[in-house]
Inverse folding.
């Protein structure tokens, strides 16, 4: 089977949790791809050269020949369909209901819990920064996150029995808090640490550490 030449656009610091999700998805599939960077601090994503490529002018953006796609969850789903199991490793659950729940988790993490994302930016996760105590609204968001994560995880090692890309997205949100030293249920801390040991995640962490 011939494999297309893929290009994934990332932020220059490799701090984007959304690029990380797409990077892990491609890496898990074992598909060769090129990695290009866009300096968001210099607003290079708003310049004509990048806006001509990306409809949203955001990262990640994936190029496959003449096809261009932005938004990480859309990229994850596209990659799963383009390189399906069993020929390639699965990144979503096979069961339709579990697959739908995985997408629910991804959508929720991207659209909710704003106080956590504001007060626990990914500089904590990827650059080792520390921030002061959470505000009351961020504490409420953390309680909501922990309750949902414990309910979803139960006694399982992964959310849906086998690993999926939703595990990485959830672990990233948990690690915003755990790596800052915020209090967290032991089960969730163990889960977040374990997800961070996955080979594809380690590859991304090596990029962000440079």
């Amino acid at each position: 089977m011939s494999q297309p030449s893929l290009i994934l656009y990332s932020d220059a610091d490799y701090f984007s949790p959304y690029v990380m999700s797409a990077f892990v998805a491609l890496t898990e599939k074992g598909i060769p791809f090129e990695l290009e960077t866009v300096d968001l601090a210099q607003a290079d994503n708003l310049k004509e050269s990048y806006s001509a490529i990306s409809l949203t002018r955001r990262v990640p953006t994936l190029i496959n020949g003449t096809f261009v796609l932005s938004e990480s969850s859309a990229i994850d789903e596209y990659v799963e369909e383009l390189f399906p199991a069993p020929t390639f490793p699965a990144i979503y659950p096979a069961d339709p209901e579990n697959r739908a729940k995985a997408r629910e988790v991804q959508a929720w993490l991207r659209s909710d819990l704003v106080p956590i994302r504001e007060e626990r930016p990914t500089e904590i996760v990827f650059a080792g920064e520390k921030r002061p105590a959470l505000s009351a609204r961020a504490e409420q968001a953390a309680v909501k996150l922990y309750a949902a994560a414990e309910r979803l995880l139960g006694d399982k090692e992964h959310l849906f029995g086998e690993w999926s890309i939703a595990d990485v997205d959830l672990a990233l949100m948990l690690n915003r808090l755990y790596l800052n030293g915020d209090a967290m249920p032991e089960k969730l801390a163990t889960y977040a640490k374990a997800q961070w040991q996955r080979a594809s995640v380690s590859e991304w962490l090596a990029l962000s550490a440079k």
Strands lie at 6-11, 33-38, 61-64, 67-70. Residues 136-153 form the longest helix (18 residues). The longest strand covers residues 6-11. The mean pLDDT is 94.
